[in-house]
User: What shape does this take?
Amino acid sequence: MGKSVKIGLFGFGVVGQGLYKVLSQSTGINAEIKKIAVKNREKKRSLPAKHFTFDAEEILFDDEINLIVELIDNAEDAYKIITTALKNGKNVVTANKKLLAENFEELVNLQLETGKSILYEASVCAGIPIIRTIEEYYVSELLYSVEGIFNGSSNYILSKMQSESLEYSEALKQAQELGFAESNPKLDVEGFDAKFKLIILAAHSFGVYIHPEKIFNYGIAGISSFDIQFAKEKNWKIKLMSRVFKNSDNTISMYVIPEFVNQQSNLFLVDQEFNGVIVEAAFSDRQFYSGKGAGGYPTGSAVLSDIAANAYDYKYEYHKTHKELQYSYSNDIYLTTYVRFIKDLTISEYFEAVHQKFENPDNKYVIGKISITALSKLLTDHKEDIQFICNIGENII
Ligand code: HSE
Assistant: This one.
């Protein structure tokens, strides 16, 4: 059953409440939430007041509490909680992908210095146990790429627009009401949340830590019914794709960009708040994982799994970081991309090659070969004019 765990919980939002329910219905784990720290004194809560405290230190310095579970949405506050907990001899479980992605190297080093651990399965693709799979199963495998749908809210919005012709704003509202979206939904629909998750997976897959600012991300915020129709006519769907892969020169590249996928793709049928991950490796070849990527219960279940793993003293070993081959990072890669824009731009000059141009009074687009570097420059130069960007998946060109 593992050791007895007394939990100090930070946050009682969608995931905190999900965990509370999941934990109360689980057997075979000797874990109990001793106290829950929350911020808002006015908010009505589903448990009696005696369960809560407004004082973080009451939990952080309680000697009886041997595990901090951090489920708040503010990355700065989470940083303070987690670093204080580790320095104070407590292990941590967190779902905070932004905090992890922005401070990955420091948090790995702090675990080594303190001898304490941080587990964060719930931070990436919620219900899909992908971090521990990559960390443990592929420990000696040579990975080529890890890619997929890592943001449940964007996928929910795209699914609703594609299958029910819902307006973008209505679909986003539903994703918020269902508790899938971040409190700042820009993180979801502009591709930041997916990028944070990609950074965490890249660290475990390739032993690289790349700061978020270096990685190109573009989300679905600018999508219109024109883009949806464009995809439908070809029997394609649009998915927010996150991808990390090894290039032939042993550099690593990463990006988050919407992508047209066809029915041959494993991701074609990954709809609603589901996520999907495809891992390509030298010997095990291509493997596909799918599960719920957002929501209180799937995320709570991943947190529970980390609580159980902690009870058995499990920690990440960061196996790939210790390999001899150290990869450098490169944005010097080419994509085949659809760019829809408003004004009569001399947009073609950003492309290495233009394959198709379209123009009617309401919509204009170009499809062609463009580098990530040129794509970034195009957005910097003409941010207001670029409406939507979407890659054309390799297998459908
Ligand atoms: N906002 C996130 C998503 C929650 O939609 O995927 C799960 O990390």
Notes: Residues 126, 151-153, 180-182, 188, 193, 293-294 surround L-homoserine (CB under 6 Å).
